[in-house]
Design brief:
globular, seven-stranded antiparallel β-sheet, alpha+beta, Knr4/Smi1-like_sf, SMI1/KNR4-like, SMI1/KNR4 family protein
Length: 218
């Protein structure tokens, strides 16, 4: 037994010609061919036992409101799973004004609060220090997810960077406002690691929910 690049346990088995490996998720091994890479959304589907929904979401209104294109990997995740909660804790915002966890609403409410507190657009916000919420043309943070204990997750939009290259910043609930964790990964990979990697601290859910789940919103 070995560990793969993100610390998950792996088992090797095969006939000496083709070697396969599996990431252990609870009692279920996720199988894939050695030397190839399952996309992270597919890994999430297999780890949670869900079927691909294949929704069609109109992203144009959200992207117009934000003034920026959203990452393709994030959009794929939303269209494959729909809206809901992973392992009874982690919610990924989608784009529907009727939803409690709507991506654009979360960003716009935060921006309105910052302005009401006297924060100028593009200037450091004490609540997000040393960052500020996203402003078109000035970069910044776009919130995309949260944990049920108050952990929060953002993209850091960096001018000139492709959306799928935006780093993820995470902050534990009640942490110092400057205490950020930075990850150079996509949203699907981040979610997969939170669900399955016991070493992915401080956000891992794996020790508490060994069998990852996804519960659709009602």
């Amino acid at each position: 037994m070995t560990r793969d690049a993100h610390g998950a346990k792996r088992m090797a088995y095969g006939n000496g010609v083709e070697v396969r490996a599996g990431i252990l998720v609870g009692s279920r091994p996720l199988t894939y061919v050695e030397g190839t890479e399952m996309v992270w959304v597919e890994r999430l589907l297999e780890s949670t036992g869900r079927a691909r929904l294949g929704l069609t979401i109109n992203w144009d209104p959200a992207e117009r409101a934000l003034g920026v294109r959203l990452p393709d990997s994030y959009k794929e995740l939303c269209e494959v799973f729909g809206h809901g909660t992973f392992s009874n804790s982690l919610t990924v915002d989608s784009v529907d004004p009727e939803l409690v966890f709507d991506l654009v609403s979360g960003w716009s409410v935060g921006l309105r609060n910052a302005r009401e507190n006297g924060v100028e657009d593009g200037e450091t916000d004490p609540f997000y220090e040393p960052h500020h919420l996203y402003i078109p043309g000035k970069g910044g943070l776009i919130p995309w997810g949260s944990g049920d204990t108050g952990d929060s997750f953002f993209w850091l939009v960096e001018e000139g960077a492709a959306p799928d290259d935006w780093p993820i910043l995470g902050r534990v609930a009640e942490a110092e406002t400057t205490d950020w964790q930075r990850y150079e990964v996509s949203v699907p990979e981040f979610v997969f690691r939170v669900l399955t990697d016991t070493a992915f601290r401080p956000f891992t859910l794996a020790p508490y929910v060994p069998e990852p789940t996804f519960t659709p919103a009602e």
